[in-house]
Design a protein that fits this description.
CATH class of the largest domain: Mainly Alpha
Number of strands: 27
Largest sheet: 10 strands, mixed
Bound molecules: adenosine-5'-diphosphate, magnesium ion
Keywords: ATP-binding, Cell membrane, Magnesium, Membrane, Nucleotide-binding, Phosphoprotein, Translocase, Transmembrane, Transmembrane helix
CATH topology of the largest domain: Calcium-transporting ATPase, transmembrane domain
Number of helices: 35
Strand content: 15-25%
GO molecular function, one term: ATP binding
CATH superfamily of the largest domain: Calcium-transporting ATPase, transmembrane domain
Radius of gyration: 35 Å
Shape: elongated
Distance between the termini: 70 Å
Number of domains: 5
CATH architecture of the largest domain: Up-down Bundle
Subcellular location: Cell membrane
Organism: Paucilactobacillus nenjiangensis
Protein name: Cation-transporting P-type ATPase
């Protein structure tokens, strides 16, 4: 059983064998049974972060807000003035409201933290002598794992092998210059600089390695630090800032109005001071948009959840908002716009071409080259090409004989493994014969990779990559079974063949090799990848994703531009771009080299037109993104590799690929696509737009009821108290922080409304409280609500004899009349929640009952109203009573004309939708 705790010193200074022994493991790892036993002991390999704000603090915050304090004070004054029941009721309302806000905030927190679990990190680890892909949380000490550029290191580990390994340890040290790491021990300066140790939480910038884990989870250095430091403060999104400002402004206005009303009540109506204060308090509470912030946070969080369902994991709430503002998407081609299911369709040799026929992954002999079985011994060029394809390859395909199985690596390389297998070459077997000595890893700037392998005493370098990048390094060509100097005509023939396939949207990888006689340890990449012998090309097909066609159309109507930025060749990129409808015939294709020669001004002019960037390196992406940003665009940019990280960080929305992306890219990104699919970016943008417009709907709705709540008081003052207050303070509180809450919340989860992708992106400078919201709330819905409720108040009084009998601010008639005001506001709010659900479309188009949360909210508000009418103690406190059937008829019919009139107005103003 495992019970070792290895310290840094022995891990770094003992021999590897001593450490391996000590950890009771081997250089090929442990068995899965042993691993399970160890996991039992060590616990999952996870960092348990200290929770930020305590729940208690979060709860208390809601009871010391401005409005809460006003209500506490109001309660005290009511009690002091002898209105004990009122005072207690005000407090009760305050507590319910605070609790509700707390619940909202917690739901939001839960929603976002649940997302973190949706995207596990993986390690490539040896178990039972086989390399498998495993969730990093299941890693245990003694596990031997592989690393390559872009991976994050999942445990504190000692290197067993390492080639040109560079590790970014900035998460531990703050130092951004990558550290060189190697198998032999060099102490280095400062903490974490032992050359042969790598640490959890760091990332691999370049190179490859195998390492043995000796500490996992909270035992790691990173875990220790995480335990010490509190979670960093949650950031406030610009939207939340704007709302905070808005809330403060509205609160100030509310208080000013309250003071004014107080003075008027005392001086003009000669109301008692305490009563005037309570009256003013009602006004203030009516106008403070108390539910705004927590509701917005919750809407953002719900937006994040909906995006997750559509395969886009957003890392912070901030991005939800930015997504809705996106004007340009810079997108990769491979895997994002296309399926990333590469199949080798053709093989180009200097003197002939093969078509690879037959589908799937079938054993030797069943699949044909040019329709016939090939004897590789009679085809030395093909043999060599497939050998390079199989050996200069970091991908493993776990398969059976019938179908292509799981891929551990990249689809491009998997396609090569598969085509070799079709001809009867097993990459696994071959790589046992040809031991790999060294690797010059693939890099999207170099666009090629090489390995040096040895069979018997013969060492060879195998290179594969883009045609230009490979053939440029070649001095010779393999022609039949002879090697001869390469001619210009060979290059032209190869290029022509590449172009022919590229025009059909196919990409090709060139292969070359040579014998290596130099001393490998000191062999630099440039010298190694030189004087090569050109062999040929493998042509691959990667069909477009069928769903992107529609998504691209959606972007067009939403006025979002798509700029393809790809490492592939110009012709391939153009062909795919035209097929899927991103660009037309007039498109300009700019290659990386051309881009380098362009000035910023020229680039600005170029990106205004239809454009594709091809043959670019990730560094170019950064320039493209930042140029677009200086032009005022809000840019989303995709990426997957280590070198994409700067562009991902620079972009307003950095989008990393969840399946094929490196851990480094995922770290740098704001959003991760769990399916690598372009469509998911568009869905996320749609949801982002919806969240913003939902928050506006919510704002519209709560402002609307403010008018209905305030008008009765205005009437009271204007009539110098002659018309008794049609809506009492307790009744105002009932609406404002009672019946309005749930339907308002329901607006936060409206689905993206039809047409939301038919308009231009929102300008980031636009205000939430737009003119449209303002006039609809105060000038239109609010006025209707006020009119029907005050009308109801007078009507009830009329039924009881008014104007013959003077209105009395007491007694059963007053209770009945104010109940009517209250009920009419609630029923007019039912209409207004329906009208708020869409800015331009009719609610019938959305489906009247399609938002279940709103349905539920309406049900609850009617229940509250019924309780106020029929539960005697509540009747006392809220000054309410039952209504006659005529009144009910009025209430029930009320929402219908309001909704119909508004739908008519929308129809006239915006046309049929
Ligand atoms: P994209 O930008 O479309 O995602 P990639 O970055 O995958 O394109 O590839 C860019 C170019 O790099 C390819 O056209 C190809 O020439 C080369 N390339 C891609 N993958 C490999 C690989 N595994 N080994 C060598 N060269 C590669
Ligand atoms: Mg790529």
């Amino acid at each position: 059983m495992f019970k070792h705790k290895i310290d840094l010193k022995s891990a770094s200074q003992d021999t590897i064998n001593a450490l391996i022994d000590d950890l009771n493991t081997t250089t090929r790892g442990i068995s899965s049974a042993e691993a399970a036993a160890r996991l039992e002991q060590t616990g999952p390999n996870e960092i348990q972060q200290a929770v930020g704000e305590s729940q208690f603090k979060m709860l208390m915050k809601n009871f010391i807000s401005l409005m809460a304090i006003l209500l506490w004070v109001g309660g005290i004054i009511a009690i002091l003035a002898g209105m004990t029941e009122l005072g207690l009721a005000i407090w009760a309302v305050n507590i319910i409201n605070g609790g509700f806000s707390f619940w909202q905030e917690r739901s939001a927190q839960r929603a976002t933290s649940a997302l973190k679990k949706m995207l596990p990190t993986y390690v490539h680890v040896y178990r039972d002598d086989k390399l498998i892909k495993l969730e990093a949380r299941d890693l245990v000490p003694g596990d031997v794992f592989n690393l390559q550029a872009g991976d994050s290191v999942s445990a504190d580990a000692r290197l067993i092998t390492a080639t040109s390994l560079e590790v970014d340890q900035s998460s531990l040290t703050g130092e951004t210059v990558p550290e060189d790491k190697q198998v032999t021990f060099i102490p280095g300066e400062g903490k974490y600089s032992e050359s042969n140790l790598i640490y959890a939480g760091t990332t691999v910038g370049a190179g490859t390695a195998t390492a043995v884990a000796f500490r996992t989870g909270m035992q790691t250095e990173f875990g220790q630090i995480a335990e010490l430091t509190e979670n960093s403060k949650e950031e406030v999104t610009p939207l939340q800032q704007e709302l905070d400002r808005l809330t403060k402004q509205l609160s100030m206005i509310a208080i000013a109005i309250g003071i004014l009303f107080f003075i008027l009540a005392v001086t003009i109506v000669h109301y008692p001071v305490a009563k005037s204060f309570i009256f003013a308090l009602g006004m203030i509470v009516a106008f403070i948009p108390e539910g705004l912030l927590p509701t917005v946070t919750l809407s953002l969080a719900q937006g994040v959840q909906r995006m997750a369902k559509r395969h886009a994991l957003v890392k912070n709430l901030n991005s939800v908002e930015t997504l809705g503002e996106t004007t340009v998407i810079c997108s990769d081609k491979t895997g994002t716009l296309t399926q990333n299911q590469m199949t080798v369709t053709n093989i180009i040799l200097p003197n002939r071409e093969f078509e690879v026929t037959g589908r799937g992954y079938v054993n030797n002999g069943k699949v044909k080259f040019n329709g016939a079985d090939v004897e590789l011994t009679a085809q030395p060029q093909l043999d060599k090409l497939l050998q390079i394809a199989a050996l200069d390859n970091d991908t493993r395909v776990q398969t059976d004989d019938k179908s292509v199985g799981k891929i551990l690596g990249t689809p491009t390389e998997a396609a090569l493994i598969v085509v070799a297998k079709k001809a009867g070459i097993s990459a696994d077997e071959l790589s046992h014969q040809y031991r790999r000595l060294k690797e010059y890893t693939f890099d999207s700037s170099r666009k090629r990779m090489s390995t040096i392998n040895q069979i018997d005493s013969k060492k060879e370098i195998f290179t594969k990559g883009g045609l230009d990048e490979v053939i440029g390094q070649c001095d010779f060509v393999l022609d039949g079974d002879t090697i001869r100097p390469i001619q210009d005509s060979d290059r032209v023939t190869a290029k022509d063949a590449e172009k022919k396939y590229a025009a059909q949207g196919l990409r090709s990888l060139a292969m070359a090799y040579r014998e290596v006689t130099e001393d490998i340890d000191n062999l630099q990449m440039d010298q190694a990848e030189a004087k090569l012998i050109y062999v040929g090309q493998a042509v691959m097909m990667d069909p477009p994703r069928p769903e992107v066609f529609d998504a691209i159309k959606k972007c067009k109507t939403a006025q979002i531009r798509i700029i393809m930025v790809t490492g592939d060749s110009a012709l391939t990129a153009k062909s795919i771009g035209q097929t899927i409808g991103i660009v037309g015939d007039g498109v300009r294709v700019i290659t990386g080299d051309e881009l380098d020669a362009m000035s910023n001004e020229e680039l600005k002019v170029a990106v205004k037109q239809e454009v594709i960037f091809a043959r670019v390196a990730p560094e170019h992406k950064f320039r493209i993104v930042s140029t677009l940003q200086t032009m005022g665009e809000v840019v989303a940019s995709t990426g997957d590799g280590v070198n994409d990280a700067p562009a991902l960080k620079k972009a307003d929305i950095g989008v990393a690929m969840g399946v094929t992306g490196t851990d480094v890219a995922k770290d740098a990104a704001d959003m991760i696509l769990t399916d690598d699919n372009f469509v998911s970016i568009v869905s996320a943008i749609e949801e982002g737009r919806a969240v913003y417009s939902n928050i506006q709907k919510f704002l519209l709705y709560i402002l609307t009821s403010n008018v209905g709540e305030a008008m009765p008081s205005v009437l009271f003052l204007l009539s110098r108290g002659l018309i008794p207050l049609p809506l009492t303070v307790m009744q105002i509180l009932t609406i404002d922080i009672g019946t309005d809450m749930l339907p308002a919340l329901g607006l936060g989860s409206e689905k993206p409304e039809p047409g939301i992708m038919n308009k231009a992106p929102r300008n980031p400078k636009d205000h939430l409280m737009s003119k449209n919201v303002l006039w609809r709330a105060f000038g239109w819905y609010g006025m209707i609500g006020a009119a029907v409720s005050i009308g109801g108040y007078f009507w009830i009084n009329h039924l009881h004899g008014w104007p013959d009998v003077s209105l009395a601010a007491a007694g059963p008639v007053y209770a009945e009349a104010t109940t009517m005001t209250l009920a009419a506001i609630i029923f007019s709010q039912i209409a207004s929640v329906m009208n708020s659900r869409s800015q331009k479309a009719s609610v019938f188009k959305l489906g009247v009952f399609s938002n279940h949360k709103i349905n539920f909210g309406i049900l609850v508000e009617i229940l509250i109203l019924l309780m106020l009418m029929y539960v005697a103690p509540l009747r006392e406190v809220f000054g309410t009573t039952t209504l006659q059937w005529q009144a009910w008829l009025y209430l029930i019919v009320l929402p219908i004309p309001i909704v119909l009139i508004e739908n008519l107005r929308k129809r006239i103003a915006y046309g049929k939708r």
